[in-house]
Amino acid sequence: MARFIIGVICTLGLLAVAGSAYVYSGAFDVAASRPHGAFARWLLGTAMKRSVVARAAGVPEPPHFTAEMVMAGFRHYDEMCTDCHGGPGIEQSEIGRGLNPRPPDLARAVKDWTPRQLFWIIKHGVKMTGMPSFGVTHSDAQVWSIVAFIERLPKISAEQFRLMRQTMHQPENR
């Protein structure tokens, strides 16, 4: 048994030395212009999904989403999210296209997350993705309004999005 434990400790020590040598050699490419390899995509994607699922379990049930919440969420989304995520009829900006990993099209990605998980992501952000923590600058009610809008996003056409923007930018709505 002692030989086994010594073997495990030596193996872990060698892995730590090899990992440190790899990091300190500069061989790990941190360039955002190159996509992650398959292992890094799996590792980061799995870590993100499991972390969000675990932490969102503590988020209270969402409020009933009203039309007013959806419009308030739209205003926040249009101001803060379209550059990276785009929207119906709106391409990602140069900033969004330059991020690695690339921000998802939320109209498609929303089906992969519960409202509580979306709330947690928006409120806390996601390290190493460019997704900021809006909980620092927004109340929980404002974050829930963004979730309310994102939940409706798959059903919003490019024309409806354009009309929502037009309505929002009319002088009496500012």
Instruction: Give the % helix.
Output: 55-70%
Amount of beta strand: under 5%
Largest sheet: none
- Total individual domains: 2
The count of DSSP E runs of length 2 or more, i.e. the number of strands, is 0
CATH superfamily of the largest domain: Cytochrome c-like domain
Q: Cα-atom Rg, whole angstroms?
A: 21 Å
Shape: elongated
CATH architecture of the largest domain: Orthogonal Bundle
- The CA-CA distance between the termini, in Å, is 72 Å
Multimerization status: single chain
Helix/strand-derived class?
mainly alpha
Average pLDDT across residues? 93
- CATH topology heading of the largest domain: Cytochrome Bc1 Complex, Chain D, domain 2
Low-confidence stretches: none
The helix/strand order is: HHHHHHHHH
For the record, the CATH class of the largest domain is Mainly Alpha
Distinct helical segment count: 9
Question: What keyword list fits this structure?
Answer:
elongated, Cytochrome Bc1 Complex, Chain D, domain 2, 174 residues, single chain, 0% strand, mainly alpha, 2 domains, 60% helix
What report would you give on this structure?
There is one protein chain. This protein has 174 residues and is mostly helical. The chain has two domains: 1-30; 58-174, Cytochrome Bc1 Complex, Chain D, domain 2, CATH 1.10.760. The chain is 60% helix and 0% strand. It has nine helices and no strands. It has helices at 2-25, 38-56, 67-80, 82-85, 94-98, 106-109, 115-124, 140-152, 158-168. Helix 2 packs across helix 7 and helix 7 (115-124) packs across helix 8. The longest helix is centred in the N-terminal third of the chain and has 24 residues, at 2-25. The protein is elongated and about 75 Å long. The model has no long low-confidence stretch (mean pLDDT 93).
